[in-house]
C-alpha cells in the first residue's frame, strides 16, 4: 500500500463524509480526491513527473488546499516538500535549493520571498548565490501574481486527467521530504520512504488505535507543514476517515470555542497549548459535551495541566505521544489513554508502540533499568534518513539503533521517562541538572504562565541556572510570590537545593517555533552574560 491509497481507500468507505473543514472551505473525502486529481493534472501538464520534488508553502488557513496539493503530488508519484511558513527567507531558500524542488505551490499571502526566484533573479543563502532547479511557480487561487501561474478555482472545477502511476510505489520509494524546524542552524531534510509511512505494521496499528480514539472529528491548530501536522494528524485522519477541523493558528480561546462550535470529538495540541488553554479566563464559558479524547505530544505534560483538564473535561481520555520526524511510526511511545496513567507517571512519555526502546551511554553500551542515558529506538520498519546528509544519517542510525538526542531512562514498569535534551542539560558546580525537572516545578506555581530553565555561564560554578518566567495575567513580576527568593523557596520544596534557580528574569512571552516548541537557543543568546554581568557589577561595587 502507498500513501495515495490512504485517501482512495477512505473514499470508497466514506465518500460523503466531510474530510476537511477549515478557513478555505469544506470538502468531503470524495471531493478532496477530485480536487487532488485536478492539482495532479495541472502539475503533470507543467512537466512535473514521478520522483520530482514539489515545494508546498501554505499555512493552516489553507488546510483544504494543503491536503489536496499533498495528495495531488502523490498521485503523480512526486514528492511533497512542505515548507515552514514561519521560516526566514534564507531558510526557505535553503530548503528549496537543498530539496532540488522543481516546482513550488504557494498561497498568495506567502509569495513575497519567492518573487525574485520566479523572476529569475539571484538570491543569497548564507553569503552565496543559491542554485535552484525550480522551473514552475504556482499560486493557489485565480489571480496571477509576479510570474506565478494561478491554479484556478480547483475546489470547484478543472481537468482531472493525469497518467496512471505504474508500476505501483514500493516500500523504498520516496514518499515525503520533511524538514526539521530549524531551531539550530539550517533545517535538515528527512526523506520518508513509502514503507515507513503507509504500509508497515507500526504505522497501521498506530493509525487504527488513534482512529478509534479520535471519533468522528479531530480539532487542532498544529501546523500541517511539520511531521506532527502532516503525518500525525492529516494522514492519520485520512486513514481513519476522521474529519479534520483545522484552525488557522493557535489561540487558546478559539481552540476552546471551536470544540463547542464544531462539536469536536477529539483535540490534538502540544502541552504548551493545553497549558495556556487551561489557564484561560474563559475556560468555563463553553460547551464541551462532545469531547471524548485529547491527544498531545512533543514534550511531557505538566501534571497540573492534566488535573485541570480532568476537572474541566471529566469524561475524556488522554494520550501522550512521543516521537520524532526522523523516526515516524517506527519510533513512538504512548502514555494513556486513562488520565490516571499520565498522573501516575509524571515525566514519562509512555511505553513503546510497535518498536523497542533502549538506553545507551556515550560509549554505546545498553544501560540497565533506571540508569540515565540517550533514548534510542529499534525497529524493523523501513528507515527514514537525512536527504543529502550521509554523515548526519550515520550519527542518527548507529548499528540498529535510532538515536533521538533525548536523555532519559526506562522504569521498572517499562515506562520511558524523558529527562531532557542532551544540549539542555545544565552542569552546575559538577552536578548534572536536567532543565525539564526545574521547569516542571516552576509551572506548578499558580502565578506562572510559562517558564524555561537554561544554563548560563558562572565564574565559579561553570554554569548556573537562570529561570526565564512569564507571569500569569493578574500577577506582577517581582512582587508577591513572583520574586526570585519566593520562586527559589517554592522550588526547594520539590527539588534538591542545587537544582533550584537563584536567578530569575521575567519576559512577556517565551520564543517558540511553529509547533509551539520553546526555542531555547534564543534565550541562551539573549541572557548568556546575565550572571556574569551581575558578578562584574558586584565586584565593581565592592572595589568602589
Q: What does this entry show, briefly?
A:
The protein has about 550 residues and is an alpha/beta fold. It is about 30% helix and about 25% strand.
What is the strand and helix layout of this fold?
Blueprint: H1 3-13, E1 18-22, E2 25-28, H2 29-46, E3 53-57, H3 63-75, E4 79-82, H4 89-98, E5 101-106, H5 115-118, E6 124-125, E7 128-129, E8 136-139, E9 149-150, E10 174-179, E11 189-193, H6 194-197, H7 201-214, E12 217-220, H8 227-240, E13 243-246, H9 252-262, E14 266-269, H10 271-278, E15 293-297, H11 303-312, E16 317-323, E17 332-335, H12 339-343, E18 348-352, E19 356-360, E20 373-378, E21 385-386, H13 390-396, E22 397-398, E23 401-410, E24 416-421, E25 425-428, E26 431-434, H14 435-442, E27 448-458, E28 462-471, H15 484-492, E29 503-506, H16 520-527, H17 530-543
Parallel strand pairs: 1-13, 3-4, 3-5, 5-8, 8-9, 12-13, 12-14, 14-15, 15-16, 28-29
Antiparallel strand pairs: 1-2, 6-7, 10-11, 11-21, 16-17, 17-18, 18-24, 19-20, 20-23, 22-23, 23-24, 25-26, 27-28
Helix pairs in contact: 1-8, 2-3, 7-8, 9-10, 10-11
